[in-house]
Amino acid sequence: MKALCLIPFCILASACQSTNGFETYYSDYGVNPDDLASPGNEVSTVEVFDIQSRVEDYQKRGYVVLGVSNFQGEWAARSKAVDHATQVGADIVIVRAEYTGSRENHFTISLPTTDTTYHSGTVSTPYGSTTYSGTSTTYSSENLSGSYDVSQFDQQAVFMAKAAE
């Protein structure tokens, strides 16, 4: 029974997005690294509803846009945005996600089953009788089918770095 309780968790865990959408759908703006201040130690993540006004705020403070990512899919962990920001030399990543609906996924899992039968009895012959006992086991499988919904989001990230003075 405990194993059956873990099945939905395993399915959902294996269905999680394994690629980094922030990296896959990144468009580089071609900023010359020599035009940037030396990067800081940590990337700051800013989650917003209005990404354009926040980008403009940072541009007024001397930041430049290194590139952007736009994609639709399952909600991407912000740690993936930070990972990509580190790769491109960004100090700040501004992210936005808007729910667009859900997608239904289906699965079928084949679970092993066993059926053990116990036998016992007496065998009689003209020469006498004897008792016997034993077991026989049949191995087979049973299919378990189900479905689950995965939320979908329009996601955008703007990667920024401080310009050299």
Question: What is the overall number of helices?
Answer: 4
Helix content class: 10-25%
Number of domains: 2
Widest sheet: strand ordering = 1-3-5-4-2
Given helix and strand content, the structural type is: alpha+beta
Assess the beta-strand content as a share of residues: over 45%
Q: What do the pLDDT scores average to?
A: 87
| Sheet with the most strands, sense and barrel status | 5 strands, mixed
Per CATH, the architecture of the largest domain is 2-Layer Sandwich
Report how far the terminal alpha carbons are from each other.
64 Å
Output the helix-strand order.
Answer: HHEEHEHEE
Q: Which CATH top level class of the largest domain fits?
A: Alpha Beta
Topology, number of strands = 5
Query: Radius of gyration, rounded?
Result: 30 Å
CATH topology of the largest domain: Translation Initiation Factor IF3
Using the alpha-carbon principal axes, give the shape: rod-shaped
Give the low-pLDDT segments: 9-15
What this model shows, in words?
The protein has 165 residues and is an alpha+beta fold. The protein folds into two domains: 19-102 and 151-162, Translation Initiation Factor IF3 (2-Layer Sandwich); 108-144, no CATH class. It contains four helices and five strands; from the N terminus they run ααββαβαββ. Strands 1-3-5-4-2 form a five-stranded mixed β-sheet. A hairpin with a 2-residue loop joins β4 (92-125) and β5 (128-162). The longest helix has 14 residues, at 2-15. It starts with a helix and ends with a strand. 15% of the residues are buried. Residues 9-15 have low confidence and may be disordered. This is Lipoprotein.
